[in-house]
C-alpha cells in the first residue's frame, strides 16, 4: 500500500536520516538543483533562460530571474485551464495546493507533482519522531489533534486544488500512519462541516481523555478557537457523554457512524467529572485538568501565531508548548529539533531535501514594523548564510517553481550539522494578522483608499489612519482608527452610521480571499471602525516622540503593536461602527 514502506523506513531510521540530511546539507542542495535543472531545462519557462549547450547549473543564478507569484501566474493559469505541455515542469502536474490569498482576492494555486507531494509527506513523520524522542511518554498514548479540511475546488483542467493539509489527510500514508495514533476518527476530520467536525473531535477527545498524551492543531489559532468552542458547548458535550446519545444536529452520516463506535454507552461519572472541571470559574490550566496525561501542546506558535502564546499558556497550566515545524504551500522549510525550547526561542532546522533554498538578505532589525524590511543584496545559498542575519526565503521546488519568493522572513540562529537553523520572523509587509489571514500594508491602504471615496462628496476628509488586530475576544477582529474632519475646517463631521458602516463594508470587501473566507467562517469578526477627533493622532506622535522617535522621520504607524498607543487613540474616540453582520 502507498507509503507503508516509507513509514516503516522513517520510524526505523528516522534519526539517522535526519543526521545524514543535515550533515550533507550542501551536497544535497547542489544535487537537488542539478536534478531539477536536468529534468526541466527543456520546459517552456526555463528554456527561455538558457542558451543551448550552456551549463544550466552554472548559469542558473545569473539567467533565471527571482520571481513572485504574480510573475508566474500566467503560466499557472494555463496549466489550470488545461494545457498539458511542459510549461513549468517536465512531469505532469497532478494537483494544485491552495495557498494564502493573493491581493486580488483569490487563493494562489501552487502546482504539485505526485513525486513532490509524496516527498513532503515525510516531514510530519520526522516531526513526530523527533517529538517522541525528546518528550518521554508520547508513544504511550494518543494524540488529540484538532484537524480540519476545506472543500476542494476543481480547476477547468479537471485538476483539483485544495489546502495541503486537506490533501494530506486523504492519503493512505496519513490514514495508515499518524491517524492511527490520533483520537479523532478520520471521518470526523474529513467532515466538511467544520462545526460538526469540531464537536465530534472534542467529544472523542473527552471520551478518551485518559489516553491522550498530546494535544494540538496545525496552527495555534485553531487550538484557541477549539477552546472557545469547548466553552460554548461543554454542557451539551457532557450531556452526550452522560446519556450515551450523540446530539441530533450531528447529521453527517460518516461522523455519526464514526462516533457510534466511540460513544457506545452512558458514562455519567465521566460526565460529572468533566462538568465539575468546566464549571470552575477560571479556566486556567483547564487542558491539564481535562487531559491529565498530556505531555505537550503541539501547534505552530511562532510568527503571527505568537499572539496566542499567553492564551495557550493560561489554558495549558504549565504544559510545554511545542512549535513543530515551519513551511508553506510552496515548500516545507524546516522542523524544530528541540521541541522543548521556550516559545520565543524556537528555531527550525532546514530540511535540505525539501527544495533548493536561496536566501535574500534583508535589512530587518527583526522587530517592529515589517514594512521597514527591504531587500539589500543578492541571494546567498544555504552554505553561505550568516548567523544573526535576516533573509527572505526563495525556493526552487520539485514542482515547477524557480527562484520563487515565498515572502517569509527568517533569522538565522545557528546550524545543526551543516544545515542552517532559523527563527521565523514574519511575512514581508504583513501588518494585520488574525488566524491565517495576513493583511499587508498595501492591502490596507488600498482598502481604505476605496472606502474614503464615499466620504469625499460629503466634504469629509480622512486625515490619518491606523489599525490593530483586536484578539482580546474570540473571534478577533481588525479595528481601524480614522481621524476625520471637514474640508476647510477642523470641525468634526456629523457621522451618519449608515455611511460609516458602508465604509467598513468596502474595506472588508477589498480584503483578500483568506480574510473573506475566515470572516465568512466566523473565525474573524466584523471589522470595527473607530472615529477619533481631530488632534488625536498628534497626541500619538507626541507619545512616540516621548519614547524616542524622531519627529522629522515620524510616520504614523499603519498598525499599532503597543497597548498604550491603542489606549491613547481610544481616548480620542467619538464614534464606533461595525461592518454589516450580514455582509458575508
Ligand atoms: P500557506 O501557504 O497558505 O499554507 O501559508 C503558509 C504560511 O504560514 C507561511 O508562508 C508562513 O507565513 C506561515 N507559517 C508557516 N509555518 C509557520 C511557522 N512555523 N511560524 C510562523 N508562521 C508560519
From TrEMBL:
The GH3 C-terminal domain covers: 443-564
Report the domain of life of the source organism. Eukaryota
**What keywords are annotated for this sequence in UniProt?**
Ligase
What is an example of a Pfam family matching this protein? GH3_C
Q: Where would I find the GH3 middle domain in this sequence?
A: 348-427
Any single GO CC term annotated in Swiss-Prot or TrEMBL for this entry: cytoplasm
What Gene Ontology molecular-function terms does this entry list? acid-amino acid ligase activity
Q: Which family is annotated?
A: Belongs to the IAA-amido conjugating enzyme family.
In Swiss-Prot or TrEMBL terms, this protein is called: Indole-3-acetic acid-amido synthetase GH3.17-like
Q: Which organism is it from?
A: Gossypium davidsonii
Tell me the classification of the organism that encodes this protein: Eukaryota, Viridiplantae, Streptophyta, Embryophyta, Tracheophyta
Amino acid at each position: 500500500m502507498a507509503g507503508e514502506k516509507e513509514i516503516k523506513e522513517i520510524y526505523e531510521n528516522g534519526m539517522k536520516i535526519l543526521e545524514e540530511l543535515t550533515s550533507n546539507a550542501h551536497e544535497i542542495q547542489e544535487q537537488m538543483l542539478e536534478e531539477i535543472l536536468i529534468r526541466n531545462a527543456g520546459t517552456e519557462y526555463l528554456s527561455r533562460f538558457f542558451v543551448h549547450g550552456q551549463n544550466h547549473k552554472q548559469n542558473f543564478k545569473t539567467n533565471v530571474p527571482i520571481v513572485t507569484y504574480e510573475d508566474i501566474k500566467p503560466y499557472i493559469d494555463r496549466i489550470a485551464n488545461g494545457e498539458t505541455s511542459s510549461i513549468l515542469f517536465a512531469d505532469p502536474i497532478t494537483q494544485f495546493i491552495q495557498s494564502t490569498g493573493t491581493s486580488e482576492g483569490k487563493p494562489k494555486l501552487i502546482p504539485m507533482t505526485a513525486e513532490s507531494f509524496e516527498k513532503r509527506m515525510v516531514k510530519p513523520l520526522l516531526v513526530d519522531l523527533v517529538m517522541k524522542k525528546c518528550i518521554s511518554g508520547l508513544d504511550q498514548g494518543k494524540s488529540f489533534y484538532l484537524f480540519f479540511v476545506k472543500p476542494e475546488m476543481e480547476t477547468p483542467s479537471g485538476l483539483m486544488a485544495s489546502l495541503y493539509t486537506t490533501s494530506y489527510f486523504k492519503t493512505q500514508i496519513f490514514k495508515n500512519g499518524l491517524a492511527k495514533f490520533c483520537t479523532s476518527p478520520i471521518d470526523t476530520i474529513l467532515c466538511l462541516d467544520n462545526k460538526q467536525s469540531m464537536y465530534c473531535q472534542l467529544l472523542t477527545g473527552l471520551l478518551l481523555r485518559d489516553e491522550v498524551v498530546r494535544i494540538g492543531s496545525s496552527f495555534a489559532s485553531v487550538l484557541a478557537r477549539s477552546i472557545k468552542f469547548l466553552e460554548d458547548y461543554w454542557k451539551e458535550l457532557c450531556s452526550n457523554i452522560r446519556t450515551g446519545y450523540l446530539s441530533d444536529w450531528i447529521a453527517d452520516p460518516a461522523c455519526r457512524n464514526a462516533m457510534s463506535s466511540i460513544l457506545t454507552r452512558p458514562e455519567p461519572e465521566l460526565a460529572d467529572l468533566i462538568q465539575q472541571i468546566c464549571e470552575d470559574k477560571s479556566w486556567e490550566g483547564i487542558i491539564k485538568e481535562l487531559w491529565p496525561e498530556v505531555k505537550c501542546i503541539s501547534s505552530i506558535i511562532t510568527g503571527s501565531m505568537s499572539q496566542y502564546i499567553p492564551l495557550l499558556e493560561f489554558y495549558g497550566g504549565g504544559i510545554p508548548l511545542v512549535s513543530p515545524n515551519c513551511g508553506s504551500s510552496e515548500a516545507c522549510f524546516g522542523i524544530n529539533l528541540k521541541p522543548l525550547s521556550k516559545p520565543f526561542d524556537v528555531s527550525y532546522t532546514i530540511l535540505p531535501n525539501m527544495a533548493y533554498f536561496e536566501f535574500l538578505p534583508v535589512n530587518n532589525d527583526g522587530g517592529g514594523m515589517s514594512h521597514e524590511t527591504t531587500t539589500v543584496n543578492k541571494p546567498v545559498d544555504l552554505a553561505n548564510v550568516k548567523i544573526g542575519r535576516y533573509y527572505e526565503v526563495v525556493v526552487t521546488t520539485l514542482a515547477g517553481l524557480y527562484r520563487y519568493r515565498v515572502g517569509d522572513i527568517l533569522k538565522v540562529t545557528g546550524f545543526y550539522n551543516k544545515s542552517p537553523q532559523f527563527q521565523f520572523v514574519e511575512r514581508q509587509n504583513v501588518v494585520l494578522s488574525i488566524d491565517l489571514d495576513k493583511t499587508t500594508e498595501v492591502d490596507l491602504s488600498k482598502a481604505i483608499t476605496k472606502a474614503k471615496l464615499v466620504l469625499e462628496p460629503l466634504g469629509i476628509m480622512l486625515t490619518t489612519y491606523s489599525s490593530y488586530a483586536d484578539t482580546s475576544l474570540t473571534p478577533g477582529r481588525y479595528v481601524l482608527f480614522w481621524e476625520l474632519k471637514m474640508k476647510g475646517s477642523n470641525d468634526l463631521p456629523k457621522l451618519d452610521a449608515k455611511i460609516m458602516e458602508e465604509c467598513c463594508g468596502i474595506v472588508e470587501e477589498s480584503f483578500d480571499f483568506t480574510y473573506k473566507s475566515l470572516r465568512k467562517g466566523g473565525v474573524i469578526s466584523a471589522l470595527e471602525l473607530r472615529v477619533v477627533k481631530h488632534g488625536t493622532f498628534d497626541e500619538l506622535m507626541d507619545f512616540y516622540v516621548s519614547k524616542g522617535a524622531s519627529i522629522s522621520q515620524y510616520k504614523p504607524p499603519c498598525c499599532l503593536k503597543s497597548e498604550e498607543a491603542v489606549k491613547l487613540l481610544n481616548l480620542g474616540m467619538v464614534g464606533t461602527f461595525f461592518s454589516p453582520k450580514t455582509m458575508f
